[in-house]
């Protein structure tokens, strides 16, 4: 079960997209405010990395390689729908 407020998000419009990637000790919640302020000019997508937004035990079996694959997968629809892509990380 995902902690309330830690859900991934996707909103906004524009010819460019931004993928928001949260940090090790956070969730999309920390990136949402910035994305909301940019949504009138950009497609904004914030992913929830596997194991995050739940309990610390859920992180135990995750790896940076798994997170990297998840980031690559999240880029596919942004690349299809956007002329430019930017990454925003915490």
Model description:
- The protein is globular.
- The model has no long low-confidence stretch (mean pLDDT 93).
- The longest helix is centred in the last third of the chain and has 18 residues.
- It contains two helices and four strands, in the order ββαβαβ.
- The chain has a four-stranded mixed sheet, with helices on both faces.
- With 90 residues, it is an alpha/beta fold.
Give me a quick take on this structure.
With 90 residues, the chain is α/β, with parallel strands linked by helices. 31% of the residues lie in helices and 24% in strands.
What is the number of beta strands?
4
Largest beta-sheet details: 4 strands, mixed
Q: What low-confidence regions span 5 or more consecutive residues with pLDDT below 50?
A: none
- Global structural class: alpha/beta
| N-to-C series of helices and strands | EEHEHE
Q: Report the span from N to C terminus.
A: 23 Å
Characterize the overall form. globular
């Amino acid at each position: 079960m995902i902690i309330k407020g830690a859900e991934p998000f996707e909103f906004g419009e524009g010819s460019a997209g931004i993928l928001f990637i949260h940090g090790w000790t956070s969730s999309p919640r920390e990136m949402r405010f910035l994305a909301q302020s940019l949504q009138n000019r950009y497609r904004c997508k914030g992913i929830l990395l596997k194991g995050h937004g739940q309990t610390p035990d859920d992180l135990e079996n995750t790896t940076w390689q798994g997170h990297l694959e998840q980031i690559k997968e999240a880029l596919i629809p942004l690349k299809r729908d956007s002329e430019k892509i930017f990454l925003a990380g915490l």
